[in-house]
Amino acid sequence: xxxMLVSWMAxxxxxxxGCANCEQLQEGATELVSHxxxxxxxxxxxxxxxxxxxxxxxxxxxxxxxxxxNSRANLAExxxxxxxxxxxxxxxxxxxxxxxxxxxxxxxLEPVCDTELGQCxxxxxxx
Length: 127
Description:
Elements: H1 2-16, H2 22-37, E1 45-49, H3 50-54, E2 66-70, H4 75-92, E3 109-114, E4 119-124
Antiparallel strand pairs: 1-2, 3-4
């Protein structure tokens, strides 16, 4: 958590100083999702629409499609941070640096805690 906070704060500081670039913001978005997806044995995970949460017009790869986060995650705080990063990216990313994705149908996926990874992930639903 400390590493995530330091990285996120570094990206914010660079943006405030006018130095943030799109690559750093993409990395910050990935670390933010990873932070909220942390889990361990016994935790439950929930599926979320990352694109809607971060704002539909963002171009950060980590915020495309659906994802899984820990059910104990503070989604309001996640949304605040995600939207801040998305806003920064709208100023820093050039059209060729933006990431968009074709998403799988979320009805075909279910959120689980992968204890080996220590992360909530989406896996195909069992028939």
